[in-house]
Amino acid sequence: MIRALLLAAALAAAGCAASPAAAQDFSHGILWKVSRPGIAASHVYGTIHVADPRLAELPVAVRKALAGARSLMLEYVGDDYGRERFLEAAMFLDRQTLEEKIGAEDFARVVELLAPIGVGREFVNKLKPWGVLLNLRAPQQGSGGPTLDAQLFDQARARRLPILEMEVIEEHVSLFDDLPMASQVALLKHALAYRDELAGMARRTLEAYLARDLAAIWRVQQDFVARHPQIAAENGALVKRVVFDRNVVMAFRMQRELRKGRAFVALGALHLYGPKGVLALLRKDGYRVARVY
To answer: 247 and 278 in contact (C-beta within 8 Å)?
Structure first.
């Protein structure tokens, strides 16, 4: 499932209430060394969950850090059960339908948009609005090879490193399934109405990531919400769940590996930025944090 368009819409309201100096600490860089006295240094790497030819190979600095790692920790390690559970949660299991939630016109648009990935009308009609959002694809997605997370997973598995996860499938499900239906509908309708703009925003986000400019990624999101204040409340609630609340959880859970030393932790780059990001939280917990790349 592809999260890029949903996150692009949700993160648009995720302005950081931070002083310029506080945000500047973690405004640029995607690979960071994390250490504390008496423990071998670990690394935290910010990824982006899309496939693109420009991401077809891990940067040299990242490969070097991974080569010296004792373990790999990812946000979530998927398996067959997880994929089946996520799909089940994304569907209405009673008589409710997507068409009755969003109306005939928007439903027809969804059917049209999902047709290229082999999803038929009857199946689409059983998807919850958030299930549709996670399946919407920007035109360029799906043709760029493995994602960064997949590359890390494959290299770690080839080296027989322990591969751990910070979250479990039920936590991923609850991120979206616990959203009120009215919010799901509002977010989906907005994404359909501004799909081209969201796709452009996703491209600019990728360009900012390639420049390792975390602050620029946030600016892309803030510029979007400034143009669409009508969706700010729904976006703000979702970004709290998807980014800020998870930052706290992941910063806590990764420490079980950081305390052992030589861990390599990978998570979405947006979780690194600013005073509410995982790097700032780790610093507050007594770790030294230094940019590598």
So the answer is: yes
Percentages helix, strand, coil for the chain, rounded to the nearest 5?
A: 55, 10, 30
Q: What's the confidence (pLDDT) of residue 15?
A: 37
Q: What are phi and psi of 214, to 5 degrees?
A: -65, -40
Residue with tokens 């616990």: 178
In tens, the pLDDT along 165-181 reads 999 999 999 999 999 99
Residue appearing with tokens 């948009």: 113
Q: How far is CA 256 from CA 92, 201, 207, 252, in A?
A: 37, 36, 33, 8
Contact (Cβ atoms closer than 8 angstroms) between residue 190 and residue 231: yes
Over the chain, what is the mean pLDDT? 90
The pLDDT of residue 143 is 55
- CA gap 169, 194 in Å, rounded: 30
Nearest 5 degrees, angle CA 101-CA 105-CA 111?
85
**Residue 251, SS3?**
helix
- What is the Cα–Cα distance from 292 to 46, expressed in whole angstroms? 12
Which pLDDT score is estimated for 70? 98
Determine the pLDDT at residue 16.
39
Q: Where are the domains of the chain?
A: 4-90+128-291
Cα 89 → chain centroid: 19
Give the end-to-end CA distance of the chain in Å, rounded to a whole number: 29
**Predicted model pTM:** 0.90
Helix or strand holding residue 169 (H, E): helix 169-177
CA-to-CA distance for 271 and 73, rounded, in angstroms?
15
Residue among 132, 244, 243, 268 nearest 190 (CA):
132
Q: Which has more pLDDT, 46 or 117?
A: 46
